[in-house]
Each structure stands twice: as C-alpha cells, then as structure tokens.
Amino acid sequence: MTDVVATNQTILVVGGGISGMTAAIESAECGKDVILVERNPSLGGRVSQLYRYFPKLCKPSCGQEINQRRIMAHPRVRVLTMTEVDKIEGEAGNYSVTLKTAPRYVNEKCTACGDCAEAISAEVDDPHNFNMKKHKAAYLPTNMAAPQRYVLDPSIIGTEDAEKARAACKYDAIDLDMQEESLSLNVGAVIWATGFKPYDAAKIQPYGYDRFDNVVTNMEFERMMDPFGPTGGKLLRPSDGKEAKKIAFIQCAGSRDRNHLKHCSRFCCMASLKQTTYLTEAYGDDDDASATIYYIDIRAIDRFEDFYQKVKDDKKVSFIKSKVANITQDRESKNPILHGVNTEGYHRYDDEYDLVVLAVGMDPEVKADEIGCKVAANTSGFIDAHADDAGCGIFGAGCATDALDVNRAVQNSTAASLKAIQVINKTAGAEA
Amino acid sequence: MADEKKIGAYICTGCGIGDRLDAKQLEMTAQRDGKAQVVKTHEFLCSADGVKTIQDDIDNDGVNRVVICACSRRAKTDAFAFDGVTLSRANLREGVIWVRPDSDEAQETTQEMADDYVRMACAEAKYLDVPEPNENHGNNLRILVVGGGITGMTAALESARAGYDVLLVEKGPELGGWMRKLHKRIPDRAPFDEPMDTGIDDLVAAIEASDKITVALNSRIARTSGAPGQFSVDIATESGSTTTENVGAIIQATGFKLHDPAAFPEFGYGNADVITSAELEELASAADGGPIKRPSDGKEVKAVAFIQDVGQNSTEVGKLRYDSGAGDLVAIKQAMYFKHHNGDDCDTTIIYDNLRTPGTAGEDFYRSGQRKEVIFTKGAVSKVDAAGDTLKVSFHDKILDEDTEMEADLVVLDMGMIPVTGPDPYATLEIDTDDDEAEVVEEEEKEDGVEAENPVEVSVESILNLDYRQGTDLPQLKFGFLDSHFICFPYETRRTGIYAAGPVRRPMDIGQAIDDATGAALKAIQAAENAQVGRAAHPRSGDLSFPTFRKEGCTQCKRCTVECPFGAIDEDEEGYPQYNEGRCRRCGTCMGACPVRVISFKNYSVETIGQQLKAVDIPDEFDEKPRLMVLACENDAYPALDMAAMNRIEYSAFVRVIPVRCLGSVNTIWITDALNSGYDGIILMGCKKGDDYQCHFVKGSEIAHMRMSKIDDTLNQLNLEKERVATYEVEITDIERAPKLINDMAATIEEIGMSPFKF
Amino acid sequence: MSNTAMVKKYRNDFLREVEEKVEEGDWVRMCMQCGVCAGSCPLGDAWEHPPQEIFMMIRAGKREEVLGSDSMWMCTSCYNCIVRCPRELPITHIMHGLANYAHRLGLAPKANPTRRFAKIFWDNIATSGRVNELKLSLGLYFMDGFGNGIKKALAMKDVGLGLLKTGRLDPMGLFKAGGIKDKSGLQKALKKAREIEDTRKGY
Fold it and tell me: Mutation test of the interface with chain B: which of C10, C66, C88, choosing the one with the most B Cβ atoms within 10 A?
C-alpha cells in the first residue's frame, strides 16, 4: 500500500462498478492519473450481478471484460479493492483523503490456482448471489473477478481452516496477519460513483418478501438465470425447487411510493420487460409459461419503447395496470396470490402464481449528504449535481446521482470524468 | 532494437503444471520445435523472482521475443508486462491442465496439447514485432463542434473549460437552437418543482467570452477529411466563402426536428388553436408574463388539453416507433405556465397513456404538477374537432373505461423527435466493383432492415460531408439515430474521432443532452490526445500497432476499403487502399478481408496466426488423434473458455485454441491452410451479429459469418464434409456451451472420420 | 354550487368544489391511479366505484355520479388504504368527507344502510351524549318498518338473550333518560362546531 502515489493531479474514483470503471478508464485514457477504490474484493459492481442487459439482451460481463482489461493494463490506473473512503476534506484541486483497506488475507503472489479453497471446508454466504448460495470461505468472488485473486472470509481467521488454507498455498500468498490499513492521500478531484443498493424488499410489508419463499426480487431473479448462480441457471421456486412457469412481476416495488422511495427508479420497467424474455429462454414455446406485469406506468423511455412493443407482441406476456395491494400465500402449494384491482375499468383480481418477482428500485448506496465537502443531496438522497455550490471538485457519477440505467450511467460517468479533468487541468495550469 | 529476433521461452511449473506435464519435454519442444534460443523453467514464474529472471534475460541476454508458457493471457497480466519486447502466451493452465482429467490415460494427449501450445506460442513469437507508433499521426487538439444548440454549446464550453480550443459551427444565424425558443426548461436541481430559466443568454455570453472558442455562424461543413488529430474541414458560409480548418476531433450535435403534426389530421392541426408543444413555448414567451392567449382570437386560455405521444410509440406507417422521452415532463412544465400566467383557475389536462416522469426529478416534478392542480388522464385521443368557439377532444378514458370528450380553448400536441442526421452510408453506399461486394452490401441492407426500421423519411442532406470511401456521414442503427454501442460504450460511433451527442443519438431532454455533450467532449478530447501519440481508441485502447500493406501484392480488389467497419480505409487515385491509421481501431477486419494477404500489423498478421496453426503437430491419420482448431474472439469466446477452465469443465484434448482480435480478422486462408494440412475440424467463435450486435468492432462478426458461408466451396473442392467447419455466435457467459461446441465437433469428427489431408 | 349546475367534463369545477367543501378534498388531485386503495379495501367487493376511480370521476367532472354513489358509504375506516397509498392520500377521511358532503347536499342515496345507521347513531348520541345501545339497535331494526323490525329482532334473539344473561344489555334502558349531565351544553357545543364548519366550508 505504501507504493500508492497520488498528487493534486490525481483523480480519485470511488466505486468500481460500471460507472466508476468508466470514469476511471476514460480519465486515464486522457492521460490522467487515477486511483480507483472499490469496497468489494473485485471490480464490477451491480452490473456484474445481472444476467443480461436491456435492450440488446447482451451479457454485462462482455463489456466488463473490456473495461477490466483496459483498467488492469493501464499504467495510470491504480486499483485498490476492499477499500473505502474514510474521510475526505479539502477543496477542488486539493483534497486530503483517508482510505481504509480491509484485510484480504491474500497477497499479490496469489495465482488463483484455487488450492486454498480446495483445502478448507468452511462455507459462507455468497453476497454476489444475494446469499442464496454459499461458497467456500476462501474464494474467488466471481468467474470474472478482477483482480483475479482469492479472498479469505474474516470469519475463518483464527480457525483451523485459515491454517489449512495457508498451508495449502504453495506460493506464500496467504497472510493471516494482515490488518486493516489506513492510507492518506492528496488528490485533485474526486469522482463519486458508489452506485445504488436494491431497496430492501422486506420493508414492503404487504408483499411478504420476508414471509413467502416464492416472492423474490428482480436482482435475485437475475442471479437465478446465471448457470453459475444459486439455481444453476434455472427458474426454480425457492420453496420446493420446482420450475416456476407462471410468473408475476410487480413494478414500483418500493419506488414512486412516499412510504418507501419517492422517486421512480427508472430501470425497473425495462428490467421486468427484459426478464419476461427469460421465460422464453428457459421454456421456449411452452404454453404453460406466462409472465404478467403489474404496473402503474410502463416507463420504456424513448428508444426503449421499441423493446416494450416487442414484449407486448409476445403472447406469453400480459400487462395489468395496477399497483398490487398485497400478496398472500396458498398454504399447501406455497403459491403466492396477488390481490388488487386492475384500474383500467375496475376489475378485481386474486391471481395465483408460481413465483413473484418484485421490481425493487434503487436506493443510493451512500447518501449524498454523508459524503461531506458540501456535496449536496437531492430530494431522494442522490447527489445533486446542479446544486448552486458549483466550485466543488467532487463529482457524482452514475447511480450515485440518480436512478439510471446502464447506458445513462456510463454517459453520466464519462461526463463526470471531464469535469474532474477540468479541475485537474486548472490546478496544473495554476501551478505551471 | 536489434534486428535479430531472440526467443526466450519460460515454462512455469506452478499451479500444478509441473505435476501434470512433463516440463523437460516442454523445454525440449520449445528448443527443438519452437527454436527458442533461451529456455528456462521456473516453479513460480509470476513471482518477483520469476519475473526478474525474464527481465534479466531481456536486459542482459538480448531476449526480445518473450514466450510465457504458464497461465492464460488473461491471467497475471500485471506480472508479465515487459517493455520493448513482444509477448506470447502458451496457455498451459486454463488451456490444458484445467480442462483435462488428471488421469493416466489422459496424460499422453494432455501433454501433446501442451507441447502444441508451446510450439504455437514460439511460432507466433517468431512473427511478432514490437509496434512503434505511426509517424503519420496528427497533433491537432482542437475540437470541432457541429451544431450550436444546447448540446453543441455545452460540448464547446466543457471542452474549453478543460483547456482545449474549440471551433463551433452553426448553420443558422445565432446560437441556441431549440433552447432559444423555450420559455422555460424542466428543472434540473432539487426540489424539482418549478420550471426554471433556460439560462441561454448566459450560456451564449460564456461562449462569446471564451478566448478558446471560435464560433462560425451561418456555416456548414462542406468537406471533412483526414483522421483524429488531423482532420481537415472545409467550412462554407452562407455567403459562399469557404475556409479550411484543422481540428483533432469532431462532435456532431445537430439535434432534432419535430415530427410533422399535419401528418395526423385527426388531431386537428391546422386549426389555429391546435398547436405543438414547441409552438406553445413561443406563445408563452410572447405572453411576456401576462396570460397566454389562444392564437385564433386572442382570448385568454382558460382550458387547455395536452395530447401526449402524438404519432409516437406505434408500429403504424408514418408513426415513430419510439417517443421523445421527455414529452410528459414538457407537458407538465407547460401546464405550469398556464397556472402561473393564466391563473389557478385555468384548467390543464394531460391525456397520456404511460406517463414517463423518471428518476428523482421526474417524479418530484409530476407531484409538483399535481399540487398545482394539473389533471392527468390516462386515455387515448381519437379526435380533435372545432366546436363553436372552442375545441372538442374526443378520447377513451382508460380508467373510467368509456368514450368521452372534453372541451378546451387550446390543444397542445406532443410531437416526437426526429434526428437531424445525414444519409446513412450503408443505406446509400454504391458499389461499383465485382459481384462479391455487391452481395456484401445487399446483406447489410437486409440486416439493417433500413426500409422497415425508418418509419419516417429522414434528411438526406449530408451534415459532415466526409470525404470517406464509405460515405459522407455517421452510420445509423435504428430509426435514423446514429449508431453507437449503446449500452456499455454509448459514445463509440463507427467513425473514429467523430462523436455524436444529444438527440442525434437518441431522443433526450436538455438535462440529458448536457450530460451527453460533456461526455462526448471527453471522448473527443481523448481521441485527439491519443492520436497525438498514435494510440488506438477503444476497444483496443493504447494499441500502437496499425495496418500496413504490401503495395506490390495488392490487386486493388477493394475488399478492405469496403469491409472496414470504421470506414478507415480510402482509395487513392490508382485504386490502392489508403490507410488512415488514426481512424483505424485495429480489429484486423481488413486483414481478414484481403484475398492476397498483403495487410498486416506488427503485432498481428496472417503469419502470426497462420504459423501457429501450422506449428501444431498433426498426427498420422491412423493415430486416431484428430486435430481441431478453434479461432476464438479474444473478447468473449476466449474468456468463456478460460472461465470454463476455472470451473474445470473438460473438453477434447484434440483441440487447439487460437485467440483472434475479432472474427472479422479471420482470413479464409487460415481455414484453407488448416484443412490442407490435415486439421479435421475448425470452429470459429465470434460475437452476436445483427441489430443487437455484441461485436466490439460492430461488423467483424457479421462479416466473418458471411465469409464463412462461402467456405463450403473450398470444402467441396477438397472433397471434405461441410460439417468440418462451423461458425458460432458465442457469448462470454457461454462457459458451458463453448466447451460443448468443441466436444460436439470432436464427436462429429469421430462420426465422419479423419481428414484425408494428413501428410 | 347549486345541485343542478352543469359541470363540464374534465374541467376542474367539481374537483375544486370537492377541494373546498370536502374534508381532505384537496388531496384528490394527488392520486396517480395506481389502484392500491381499491385492492386494499376489505369491503372492496361491495364498492361500485373504488376510491381511486372516484378520484378519477371527480376529475372527470362526474358530480352526480360521485355524490349519488353509495360507494364511499362502504368505508369501514380500516385505514388499509391510507397505510398503503404511495401518495399518502388520507383516503378514509376523503371517503367520509365525500359521504358527509353528499348527505348534506341531500344527494346521498336515501336507502343506503350505512348512511341511515350513521344518522341514527348520530341522533342517538347527539341527544344524550351517550350511546343508548338498546335504542340504537331497535332504531336500526325498525327503520324499514315494523314487520321487518320484528323479523330482524327475532333473527337476533339468541344474541340478545345472551347479552341479557351476561348483563351486557339493560332492558330498562329503553325507558331511562340516561346520558351525560350537561346535555344542553353538549348540544350547544355541537351546534357551534357545525357553525364553524359551515363557515369554513362555505355552506
């Protein structure tokens, strides 16, 4: 860690998701020095948990591969994983930043051979799979992990397993004495790209996410499609492991709701439309497979409307304009039953499904007013980029600034990169 | 660097390689077959000590072609990074031991696999050169912005703020575009509750005050040639004068025009009191703080109906398949005009189907509109008629589920946005050569579905007048919007150094256009900066290589100039390809296209791949050991196979995988050579093609599929079964499928038998 | 506004009337037609028009249909809708407000049992300051005539006897004056409250 060099010509990028990666590599490819910090053990962020992107239905890891390759190979980018910003002080052109790095217990000698994982038996919840799955306590976070280096879960430190892992490593890569480290840096500008967290579905009491097995979130549904995910790429009901064929999607689960998130999370309509295509992927033309979307307004914005039209043409998919009132569960079958009213006309329904997907919205991972240095929060806690205090050298990027889809997050991060470069160039100009 | 190539092969025995493979044998292979002058084995090659061993040989022993026989080229890239030498990787870990069972009976074929990969890496090393930056690069860092609306103005200002000179060209007599016509704009900051001033005057003043920005009004681009860092642009003024300017990168921000409301007579446009939302802005400004009056008789408006998504979101002929995205926020803003100017008792009704007020700003603004008593009605309007001195709007109320009507003094139509772009080069590209190429273009048109996808006629007047072989303007993807990668890399157009920003890319409101312009400015600056040092742009960012061709061998067939996905290659007067290196993205599609194989890169050529496939030891027909070749896209298919290995998914020991930059770079000579030298099966793994293409080089995969569709002739000539060659679209997540495709081919070969071409 | 005034469709006249005259009526404009109130109502089946639809009808200017509807009389004040409404509309209160307003205008459906119960209840309590359960029950039983009253009373006789046995029902209550001490004070207070409300709402 001592070899991390930064000056007021350096841009600190906080968050290694698609937004942070974009901001970091775009800045570096303009010739700027960048330090990219990520809290998790590997880069990728939320998009690495997605199965496909809308509207092209392509795989997020495809773009991730290129971004990671660019970042890892770029001499001007320094990536610090398992690292968070502890404190940030100063002003545009001159920030003092304190970073905190959690112990990985695995050093750079790791070859990702996997012997440590092989050697131990302890398993821990896998947060990449929303804890629907366990993995070994010595693990490579994902297939796409960058850096490609193992991690030891802190829970096994001091146990026999930790010793076994250390003993199994032929390359002296496991260091059980690693401690949390603190690092102070001087940087010129900051790009804040801490992204979003899915809204806590358990807080939406009437939907029973915490009570009913067969009510899952949209993000969990994404993981189910991954062949290396918790269900091996099959749409299996959590209650009995049977294939879920009749699936309901509940839009605005938390969003547009004064009791939860008052903003519209923007991506969830398109995400559900996309997820209806997973049924075709899983079941082909099987007539038993069906998707029903319960919505207030379908927000397929601008060119995305084309995708909406395509989904509407799919015989398997139907739409009901309704915010579902509540969900109950059939005691025997564990089928969730949706209750509510179709407001186009007024038709009451009590619809039974194999599985319900809650299209939960986005909450800012870090509330803007917790960042410090006069970063302003908007009415939902995202960074207000246009607040009047414009002299600030901390720029929000991606979902830290609003609920955005990937395309808009990348657009926004690229813009943030230029904003940071302006500060750096101005500082350089003043010093020259 | 010394002219002499000195290969150093370094064999790692770590990660189980030493346990599973005979390292001595590998050393011998490297030495004897690979002709490596230095061969060393290390038990932990990526360690500081291992890396030092290599670096010492480079520094002291003249090794300049490094061959790492260890893990995948995707692993340990930070450790194996050496300056001034070429690097080849024999993938013994992910490519061999991790995909093969650890059993005695598998040992022999596994070792053969490893030996072949060592041979292949050494063969590649022999033909690799260290790229040096192109000397013919430009140094111009000035940014040209085309279009003086909010997007163009923002791009200009943001570039200038980063310290770059800007030339801003606007076809009209003043800056401001649509923004100048607006009364107010949608709020962009909390609490998102009131329309805000456009700030247009301040923006124009800032541009005028900037000593970095030159503005050319009443001007158009008459011609654009060159490449990033050295574009030459003729600016023609309305008065007829033309000046030539040099710029480093270009941003096209030519905005949009509104769909024609007269195309939808049912909405009554033509009646003076039926207006578009754009016309309402002028009406509101003209009211000058007083009540907004209706055009027909100057009566103060007391009831107004907003009809949303007119001619949008429909597959019907003449309608747009998309919507403007911001139309509902605009309607809310405009309804507030009436509440402000005409009083709270002025009734405003917005008739919508799906209300699109996304994000924090959108939903806050929606609620603010409701608080101001703007009425929202989910409905579908069928007709607007004059009724006495008022207007009658007939619609189906979708909530009350009834056909109904309302009266209004004024009806405002939300019209869709149509991008102002030039002609799509691939809809108009004329082909004047032989049949093969005509076929290429026909296919493209079919794939693009140009006719079906363009619901309304778009401008055919060129914007950029690019003096490029492949047409005058930026290529389009759908609905006339300029092509971009769209999700992960939204700015990547198919003309290097030229970026699209604002509603030419997709419909957007002012807030998003400002973001977009700022991002595009960064990309333009980056392109100019990279051009200055001869570096490639995304996705092979930083690559210093560039294509060259042997002129004496060239037959002027023009395949390369036609197929280049980025329009980088022109033709000189004699008909030879003229490379514009700065425009090149280093995908190698030209190299794949060349029937006489005269195009190459220093670090990638027909030989670097061709020699690898020739280096593979082809066993005798009666050995019952077939050989399969996989040419895998390095961006998706190759990582998929790597990840298969990480998950210990086994596949046939008879396969040899060669990563390629893009399937577009695959030259059919490799296939022919492989078949002739006794390979039994060949698999090409590329990315998804078509409208939802996933190819990072846009057309590479598509072109490869097209080329391979013609390989049947070759197979026929050789009297070989067509099953021996297969082309697949493989996703990076095809971790289980990619090995299966290999195993399936192995099974097919077992069925149809070995190739008779083994000598 | 008089009861016969023409209300223009989708103009805000009736909405404004509701905002001015109906308790919490100024929230009606905030509904976004999600329908969660309609789905959350335990008596939903009994409603001709669920709350969200009533709100749309108000905006559409359907004055007579709204005020003449018995839908809002179905509300039992369970508050499910208020709890779930994503726009925090006090739907229960608005329903009662609408019912009250319709009643005061004389537009409420005459035969609606909830309205009649409410009226009997009110008259019962407003007179004495206490609810006289026997009087209330009998009033309810016999509101549709003597014959019906006997029928209803017979149907409920087991419950009544049970209540008698356990001392929960005082048969003599029918004849006792009962009530609070200062009845006229209460009546004065109620009268004053009414005046204040009338002034505020502009009746």
Answer: C10
